[in-house]
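A.,

Following up on our hallway conversation. Structure tokens first:
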């Protein structure tokens, strides 16, 4: 599948943790939590996807437990979100923008680690998507909101999947440089997510058939 060693810089992973920590902290500000609650929410949001990826799906030692840069990134993201969340009136829009960027970054990191582990391409796409949406799902659950991935509405998991599939095609299919492939995937995921919000692209609800036979 791959011609040689395949590894994205750890900065991609730390950046994703930072971005999701920002969204977690801003959600905490919106809910009027105290600083401890905001930082706990930032920690869960920033590292939730990585724990799912490493501990559950790839079943290896979680990178966030072996590299202190992740915790520093989450702490920085939490404090950044706490500060700017207090000074921005349209916090929800900012959360959506940062979340869209983090969605793409975490999706590429999950796909890269799966490719490096030699998983089949279908599994690579699955792990990439779970990595991308895991932190956001955990954030929404903790603030007692229905996770975006469960609701008909703007593209969320589909945006992550689009970026992951492009990354797989470029990196594993065409053997283009992994960093360039990752940036293209991040850009596509971000664009699909934002266009879905701005243009009203929606998924439809699956309606049950309530007809009764007589």
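Then the amino acids I'd put at each of the 214 positions:
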């Amino acid at each position: 599948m791959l011609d040689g060693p395949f590894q994205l810089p750890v900065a991609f992973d730390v950046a994703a943790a930072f971005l999701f920590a920002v969204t977690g902290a801003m959600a905490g500000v919106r809910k009027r939590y105290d600083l401890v609650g905001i930082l706990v929410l930032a920690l869960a949001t920033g590292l939730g996807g990585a724990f799912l990826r490493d501990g559950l799906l790839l079943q290896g030692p979680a990178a966030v437990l072996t590299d202190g840069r992740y915790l520093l990134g989450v702490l920085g993201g939490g404090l950044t979100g706490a500060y700017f969340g207090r000074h921005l009136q349209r916090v929800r829009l900012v959360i959506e923008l940062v979340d869209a960027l983090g969605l793409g970054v975490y999706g590429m990191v999950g796909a890269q680690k799966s490719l490096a582990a030699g998983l089949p391409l279908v599994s690579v796409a699955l792990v990439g998507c779970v990595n991308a949406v895991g932190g956001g799902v955990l954030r929404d659950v903790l603030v007692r909101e229905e996770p975006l991935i469960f609701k008909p509405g703007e593209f969320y998991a589909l945006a992550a999947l689009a970026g992951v599939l492009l990354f797989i095609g470029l990196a594993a299919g065409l053997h283009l440089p992994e960093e360039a492939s990752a940036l293209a995937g991040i850009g596509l995921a971000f664009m699909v997510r934002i266009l879905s919000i701005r243009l009203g692209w929606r998924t439809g609800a699956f309606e049950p058939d309530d007809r009764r036979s007589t």
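Residues 10-199 form one domain. Curious whether your intuition agrees with the design.

B.
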